[in-house]
Automatic annotation (TrEMBL), chain B:
Chain ranges of the Roadblock/LAMTOR2 domain: 10-99
Family, similarity comment: Belongs to the GAMAD family.
Keyword Disulfide bond: no
Record GO cellular component, one term: cytoplasm
Record's function text: Acts as one of several non-catalytic accessory components of the cytoplasmic dynein 1 complex that are thought to be involved in linking dynein to cargos and to adapter proteins that regulate dynein function. Cytoplasmic dynein 1 acts as a motor for the intracellular retrograde motility of vesicles and organelles along microtubules.
GO biological process per UniProt: microtubule-based movement; transforming growth factor beta receptor signaling pathway
Record's keyword terms, sorted: Cytoplasm, Cytoskeleton, Dynein, Microtubule, Motor protein, Transport
Record GO terms (molecular function): dynein intermediate chain binding
UniProt subcellular location: Cytoplasm, Cytoskeleton
Species the sequence originates in: Sander lucioperca
PANTHER family: DYNEIN LIGHT CHAIN ROADBLOCK
Annotated InterPro entries: DYNLRB1/2, Roadblock/LAMTOR2_dom
Protein name (Swiss-Prot/TrEMBL): Dynein light chain roadblock
Length: 722, 102
């Protein structure tokens, strides 16, 4: 039995110059996994590829391979030359093919182990040798005679001349050889570097420290090189002590857990809960825009219902509803009605009324100075015995079914007036002498701006009328200051100013009782009643339309005093004709010198300013006339109420009889009348809380100049006197 | 900033509208078209809400296409038998819309 010994040399750097050639006498069928310490990792890759080659080789029956040629970019032939040229005489009896590998590789290793290839010299790339030895098959390609110190790509074309090697080593394994005991010695081979990736940190050439870094790299490379054979560096092993573990306990605060549950009511709630809070139905309904939508909606519906009436009011053509099913009976009736009413009459359009106001007595009605659709109505019973709370409602023409604003007052309201400068301010005079200013602007804000209850000079008796009047132009030349003037039953005419504390007043005039021989006994009785005070109650007043410093006051005694704002002691004129309280007085809006007065002595008097006796006098029913109003549209028309009826006088037609007499419903007294500007409608307030809107029909009012017609009438009347 | 009006006032207004002559019902819807309050029966409510929501969107987009500064404030659909009045919210498609059948 032949002994064969195989000496494997490990390739390591330290053993660079070791044995050049080895003789391997015999082969062995033992499979060796050659394990260089560093090479195992990387070699599998290569081994795999080699294995394939091995299989290929076998399949191809070890057909001779074509020599591989490697060309670089320029077309130069950079085919790696074999490093080992096997001579025919060498190694005649190579026992194992794989041993060839080893030797060849080890040789080449020695030659190549310290060389370092960088990426650029890709062309001089060599096939791997050692890794192939890791293949488990005994047959190894002979083509891998060159080792690859560096591997950039795992797949490596086998270098040529593998064929030669194969031929040399081919040998048949005989039976005797199998029984041989083979000694195998293992030695460490040189370190074969299979993969070396240089640092990929690309340094820009412009960087300042490029040079420094490069130098440092070189230094380090040097150091590593020097380390190998240097005495300064000694290899040494170390061991770390692992201490015995010890148990230690700690404690933390308890995490308090609380159970919380909630329920979801219905599907709708669940859906709305997932949205933001605004989507809550309750909240939605409270938002302003929703309120606005409601308002618009209500008005639209009401407009639908009242459309014909409102159209008539606004003097628009009434369009018949094409879809309405009008019964033929009603049509006949309306036709009949039309035929008969060729004479002037009042046609009822609608009534402002609602649940809230039903049954109240209306005391005063007034239009807003800026918005001609807004109407303020005061409801209350003027009862001197007990103070009943009263109501002020602001109605809009757009919704006759519900007032826009509702204010409650502690005392009966006797008079209202809207301000012209601040159209949202409403002055209120009450039965207990209080004067207040309300604002109608916002639904939610505080309504009462100012109250005269704290003024020391306030009225203690009923305030019968309040008037906003534009006084003289202020020094600054801006909008004329508006003064609130009130006339009261205590005989004072006061001018009120809005201060920070509230309302403050100045006395404009005191109505003194006058001794007059023309007075009748009735008057003197009244005089003795008021013995306590030297003042006589004023019941009504009106400012001159053009000269705002002049105003008229009607008194309890029946006198009409013309006063001036500037003069607070003396009256300018006294017009005396009535012998009962003057209930209402009004300047004509067309003729600046003419005014009307009405009194409880059943008469209405028409005066001219210069003349101390009335020009015309009107009587119709034997009842006290409570109010008289000029029409703002026609100069010769005025309205008067006397409790049971509304009278419309047209001086053009007749100065003896009213043109239209409209009876109130039985049991209802008519208490207030108001014309509306720009349209031929008149509003009548009654004691049932209804404000009825009537349209004046068939009044043949001329298109001629209004002033002239009135003047003519007056002129003719005056001439009659003379 | 004025305080919110009371719930009662809103309810009262709704009642008044409902009691007007000829009003068949009121539906209040939120952005998504889900009715949140109604005086009609469920089936009709759902039907109306679904159909009308689309109509309002279309009308609004029409108005805005013609003039981007403009916006839809009120919509009335008049038919032989009925009239539907729709008041979309100002920041509409965002909180509520109320319909009315008349």
């Amino acid at each position: 039995m032949k002994k064969s010994s195989l000496v494997f040399n490990s390739s390591s750097r330290a053993m660079n110059t070791s044995v050049a050639g080895h003789q391997v006498s015999q082969s062995s069928r033992h499979k060796w996994n050659f394990a260089g310490s560093q090479t195992r990792r990387n070699s599998i890759l290569v081994g795999g590829s080699n294995r394939k080659r091995n299989i290929l080789d076998r399949n191809a029956n070890q057909a001779p391979r074509k020599p591989v040629r490697v060309l670089d970019n320029d077309g130069n032939d950079v085919t790696p030359l074999p490093l080992y040229h096997a001579e025919p005489g060498d190694m005649p009896s190579k026992p194992g093919r794989f041993l060839d590998e080893i030797f060849s590789s080890s040789e080449s290793d020695q030659l190549k182990s310290t060389s370092s290839f960088n990426m650029r010299s890709f062309g001089s790339f060599l096939g791997s040798s050692l890794p192939s030895s890791l293949s488990t098959t005994a047959s190894m390609t002979k083509g891998t005679e060159d080792s690859v110190p560096k591997l950039d790509i795992p797949i490596i074309p086998p270098p040529p001349c593998g064929q030669r090697k194969r031929d040399n080593v081919k040998q048949h394994v005989t039976e005797e050889m199998l029984d041989d005991v083979v000694d195998v010695c293992l030695t460490e081979t040189d370190t074969i570097s299979l993969f070396d990736l240089p640092p990929l940190i690309f340094m820009s050439e412009d960087a300042d420290d490029t040079k420094a870094i490069k130098e440092r790299n070189l230094q380090y490379a040097e150091l590593c090189k020097n380390r190998t054979g240097n005495d300064k560096y000694v290899e040494r092993s170390m061991q770390t002590f692992s201490g015995a573990p010890k148990e230690k306990q700690i404690q933390t605060d308890k995490i308090v857990m609380v159970d919380e549950g909630s329920t979801i009511g219905s599907l709708l709630e669940m859906e709305t809960c997932s949205l933001n809070a605004e989507s809550n139905p309750e909240l939605i309904m409270l938002t302003e825009s929703f309120q606005h939508s409601l308002l618009v909606m209500e008005r639209s519906i009401v407009a639908n219902l009242f459309q014909p009436k409102l159209a008539a009011y606004r003097q628009l053509p009434i369009i018949k509803d094409p879809d309405s099913t009008v019964k033929p009976e009603t049509e006949e009736k309306s036709e009949e009605g039309e035929e008969s009413s060729s004479s002037p009459t009042l046609e009822r359009l609608w009534a402002f009324s609602c649940e809230l106001t039903r049954g109240w007595n209306i005391t005063c009605m007034v239009w807003n100075k800026e918005n001609p659709d807004l109407l303020a109505v005061a409801y209350g019973d003027c009862d001197s015995t007990n103070q009943k709370p009263s109501l002020i409602c602001c109605w809009s023409l757009k919704n006759p079914t519900w007032p826009e604003r509702v204010f409650h007052c502690h005392s009966c309201v006797t008079s209202l007036d809207f301000s012209a400068n601040n159209p949202s301010q409403l002055a209120v005079g009450m039965y207990d002498g209080t004067i207040a200013i309300y604002t109608v602007q916002s639904r939610n804000n505080i309504h009462c701006i100012a109250n005269s209850s704290e003024c020391s000079k306030r009225h203690l008796k009923p305030v019968w009328q309040v008037n906003w009047s534009k006084q003289e132009i202020t020094l600054s030349g801006e909008d004329r200051v508006e003064a609130l003037v009130a006339v009261s039953a205590d005989g004072r005419i006061t001018k009120w100013l809005l201060c920070s504390n509230g309302l403050e007043c100045i006395d404009l005039m005191k109505l003194k009782k006058t001794k007059n021989s023309k007075k009748k006994a009735v008057e003197s009785k009244k005089k003795t009643e008021h013995m306590g005070s030297a003042l006589t109650p004023g019941l009504c007043m009106d400012f001159h339309p053009t000269d705002s410093s002049v105003y008229l006051v009607g008194t309890w005694e029946g006198l009409i005093q013309k006063c001036s704002v500037a003069n607070c002691h003396n009256v300018l004129e006294t017009y005396q004709n009535h012998f009962c309280p003057v209930n209402s007085i009004e300047w004509s809006p067309f003729s600046p010198d003419v005014f009307l007065s009405c009194s409880s002595d059943w008469t209405i008097q028409l005066w001219k300013q210069e003349c101390l006796t009335p020009v015309l006098s009107f009587t119709s029913a034997q009842r006290a006339v409570y109010a008289v109003r000029w029409s703002p549209n026609w100069s010769t028309i005025f309205a008067a109420i006397n409790g049971l009826q509304v009278e419309i006088w047209d001086l053009n037609l007749s100065i003896l009889h009213p043109t239209i007499v409209h009876q109130a419903a039985p049991g209802v007294t008519v208490t207030s009348v108001l014309f509306s500007r720009g349209t031929d409608c008149v509003l009548v307030g009654d004691s049932e809380g209804q404000v009825t809107v009537y349209q004046l029909k068939n009044l043949s009012v001329g298109q001629g100049k209004q002033v002239d017609s009135l003047e003519d009438i007056i002129g003719s009347a005056v001439s009659r006197y003379l | 900033m004025p305080p919110f009006p009371s719930q009662a006032e809103v309810e009262e207004t709704l009642k008044r509208i409902q009691s007007q002559n000829g009003v068949q019902g009121i539906i209040i819807v939120n952005t998504e078209g889900i009715p949140i309050k109604t005086t009609l029966d469920n089936a009709s409510t759902v039907q109306y809400a679904g159909l009308i929501h689309q109509l309002v969107m279309k009308a609004r987009s029409t108005v805005r296409d013609i003039d981007p500064q403009n916006d839809l404030t009120f919509l009335r659909v008049r038919s032989k038998k009925n009239e539907i009045m729709i008041a979309p919210d100002k920041d509409a498609f965002s909180n509520k819309t109320s319909f009315l059948l008349y």
